[in-house]
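User: I've been trying to design a sequence by hand for this structure and keep getting stuck. Would you show me what you'd pick, starting by listing the structure so we're on the same page?

Assistant: Good idea, let's start from the same input. This is the structure you sent:
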């Protein structure tokens, strides 16, 4: 076999990159649903390379073969786009990443890119670690990051144990994330980034995103937002100026529940004081090709396509789930066994007004059903049961159709008691700061008819009828929970 020469491959790659850039331009003219349905997979590509398959192919392959040593050298030297080895890249991952990047950048004239990961936690680690590196000019300087303490339980552990406790990377906790002065008071010259979850899981903390972005940028540091609960159908932080968005694609994006998946999506030329031009120019691609190549947290081709397949209908599902959740929240709000309902969609929620500034169903103005902008608040709500920890477990144990699972954003309604599950590791103090009492049930309403979800809740709450329950609920008492454990 004769050699083609490296330049041959570099020239060919240039052409395909041009085609790629034009395709993105075309997709950016389409509405959200069209982008979600087609993503980066075109009819031309299907006909030329994939036997006309109308669905993106699953490349279940560890690695890629090369035509000759020149192509191999160019590929492994990252001189041409390639997928060489599935730990780093794979065509199936590429389709998912392309779709995520387009959806998070939807509606704004910004360039975005994505790196798909094996889980949401991997996406968080991949996003924050590059900012926490030792400063070669000042290797002994302390390093800190400022993040809200209302975060997902796994994130809390990653920050509190793996970073703060084990590596001495100080987590400066923002307790009231809606207080911009508190954010600012925690920042100093050693702060590497600001981090927040919005809305938070399960407490639905919410902050003025634009102000936090402005604040971070005024200190020259990036703002990283976990927008898992909202999904790009309701909130796209990159379009408001945030630098990186985290998606636990396991949740709102993959409603089917087929597997675990994550992604980080970044805007080009993000803000950071770290002196690394490649990293700042295209963070997601940098992470994908370098740190994640070495650390290995990227997604499998199978999970990438399963996730992609669910994303196609993201907007209509988030709309349906939101409407169902609103109906359920209104029902629970009036129920005699309920102490309170927390749902950003309810006017009674103290953050309702702020949430209404940010949470909009994308493209509602182009939807024949609405024809105008419409607020939607997502599938995550929680409620507190009167009577404390044991009463809460009694109601929870009586669910017949709502699944008892530590899950979120499913097509099936799921519920959990965060204090004894997702948020059990962080201890009483951590839960108190994150506002997670023992009598809190987190409920994520899915795609069933809301009447049937309400009927299930109604019969479960009837378990408390006639029972003698404590009049006041000791919010952070462990009595109920631990004695129940002993009985089992
Ligand atoms: C579940 C979740 C994560 C972690 O994602 P995994 O896919 O489970 O690793 C991160 N953030 C939020 C808000 C979550 O709900």
């Amino acid at each position: 076999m004769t050699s083609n020469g490296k330049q041959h491959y570099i020239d060919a790659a240039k052409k395909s990159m041009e085609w790629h850039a034009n395709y993105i331009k075309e997709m950016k003219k389409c509405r959200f649903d069209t982008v979600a349905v087609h993503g980066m997979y075109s009819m031309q590509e299907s006909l030329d390379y994939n036997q006309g398959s109308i669905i993106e192919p699953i490349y279940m392959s560890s690695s890629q073969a090369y035509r000759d040593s020149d192509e191999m050298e160019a590929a492994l030297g990252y001189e041409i786009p390639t997928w060489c080895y599935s730990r780093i890249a794979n065509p199936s991952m590429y389709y998912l990443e392309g779709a995520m990047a387009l959806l998070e950048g939807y509606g704004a004239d910004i360039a975005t890119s994505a790196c798909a990961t094996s889980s949401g936690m991997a996406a968080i680690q991949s996003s924050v670690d590059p900012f926490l590196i030792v400063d070669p000019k000042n290797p002994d300087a302390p390093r800190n990051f400022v993040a809200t303490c209302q975060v997902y339980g796994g994130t809390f552990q990653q920050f509190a144990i793996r970073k703060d406790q084990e590596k001495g990377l100080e987590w400066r906790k923002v307790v009231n994330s809606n207080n911009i002065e508190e954010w600012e008071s925690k920042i100093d010259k050693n702060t590497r980034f600001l981090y927040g979850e919005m809305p938070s899981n399960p407490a639905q903390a919410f902050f003025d995103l634009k102000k936090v972005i402005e604040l971070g940028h005024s200190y020259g540091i990036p703002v990283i937002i976990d927008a898992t609960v909202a999904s790009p159908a309701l909130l796209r932080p990159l379009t408001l100026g945030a630098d990186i968005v985290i998606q636990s694609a396991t949740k709102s994006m993959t409603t089917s529940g087929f597997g675990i998946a994550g992604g980080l999506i970044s805007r080009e030329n993000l803000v950071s004081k770290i002196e690394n031009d490649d990293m700042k120019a295209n963070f997601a691609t940098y992470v994908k090709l370098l740190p994640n190549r070495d650390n290995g947290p990227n997604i499998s081709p199978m999970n990438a396509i399963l996730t992609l397949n669910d994303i196609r209908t993201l907007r209509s599902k988030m709309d349906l789930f939101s409407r169902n959740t609103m109906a359920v929240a209104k029902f629970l709000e009036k129920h005699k066994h309920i102490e309170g309902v927390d749902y950003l969609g309810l006017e009674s929620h103290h953050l309702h007004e702020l949430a209404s500034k940010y949470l909009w169903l994308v493209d509602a103005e182009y939807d024949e059903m609405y024809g105008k902008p419409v607020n939607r608040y997502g599938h995550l709500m929680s409620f507190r049961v009167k009577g404390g920890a044991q009463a809460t477990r009694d109601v929870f144990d009586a669910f017949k159709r709502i699944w008892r699972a530590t899950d979120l954003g499913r097509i099936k309604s799921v519920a959990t008691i965060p204090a004894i599950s997702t948020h059990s590791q962080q201890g009483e103090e951590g839960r108190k700061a994150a506002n997670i009492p023992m009598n809190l049930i987190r409920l994520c309403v899915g795609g069933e008819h809301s009447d049937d979800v309400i009927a299930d809740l109604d019969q479960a709450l009837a378990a408390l009828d006639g029972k003698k329950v404590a009049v006041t609920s000791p919010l952070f008492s462990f009595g109920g929970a631990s004695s129940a454990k002993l009985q089992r």
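That's my pick for every position. To get oriented when you compare it with your attempt: The longest strand covers residues 191-197. Residues 6-311 form a domain with the Aspartate Aminotransferase; domain 2 fold (CATH 3.40.640.10).
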